[in-house]
Amino acid sequence: MAVSRRTLMIAATSLPLVATARPVRAAIAHYPLHCDPELRAALEAAALAFLAASDIRVHVLPTSDGLLVPQVAHVTQSDIVMTRPETVAGLEAIGHTVQGAPHPRFAGRLVLAGLLETPDEAARGGPIAAPDKLPNQAFDSAAVLAAIGLDRALTMGTVDTANAAFLVTSGKARAGLVYLSDVKADPRLKIVTEIPAAAAPPVIYIATTTQTPRRPQPEAFVSYLASPAGAAIMKQYGLELMA
Questions:
Q1: Any idea which fold 110-194 has?
Q2: pLDDT given for residue 19 in this prediction
């Protein structure tokens, strides 16, 4: 029996649709996380992997040095923080003490970085973007540059290492004092000189929940960071999980 084209089209439209891809599920919870600027790329990568595994979205909010405590306390909601011990102590001092375990710690380090295409000696010749000495700064740029023999180099003051990295990638500076996590976050950058630990000890970061989260179990993401999968992502960005 001959079947007309019109009959075939009607039959086709009556068939159930077959999904060609796994539907995207909406996140079942959203957690804001405040962190130091140099941690942004690492935490965003970890948050993306955590979302795929849990359907929980962590919103990473980099916060400039000195502003994290007042933002968490007075301005914005924050369920999770990842920052240096002295900033965590500042939260504890105003009553935003952290909840129980886990409180994984990660170590980062300072380096002198430049653009991939810039020869190391040219980068070392400056100008060098160097964070200004601030009350909570983890290192003294002048002392660090002196330790690597660059105390006579022309320098450009910056607010933090993220700003120093920007000055390098924008061509304003030939090199910058930045954290290894800044370098790993930008494929345009390379390490020009390793900074000895005596001049700039490893910087320590604590991941923890705040005292007043509005959603249940924000510590799930903190635990993920300390897991083998989470720690491996953080290591890719130059952040080593401490024992």
A1: D-Maltodextrin-Binding Protein; domain 2 (3.40.190)
A2: 38
Distance CA 15, CA 12 (A): 6
Domain boundaries, the chain: 29-107+203-241, 110-194
Whether the per-residue pLDDT at 60 is higher than 70: the answer is: yes
Burial of 39 by CB count in 10 Å (0-12 exposed, 13-18 middle, 19+ buried)? buried
Q: How far is CA 56 from CA 28, 33, 83, 225, in A?
A: 6, 13, 21, 14
> Would you say the pTM of this structure is higher than 0.85?
no
Structure tokens at 69: 């405590």
29-107+203-241 folds as D-Maltodextrin-Binding Protein; domain 2 (3.40.190)
Contact predicate 119/146, CB 8 Å: no
Would you say 31 and 58 are in contact if contact means Cβ atoms under 8 Å apart?
Answer: yes
Q: State which H helix or E strand residue 90 sits in.
A: helix 85-93
Positive or negative torsion for Cα 107, 187, 231, 57: positive
In this prediction, residue 14 carries a pLDDT of 41
| Amino acid identity, position 204 | I
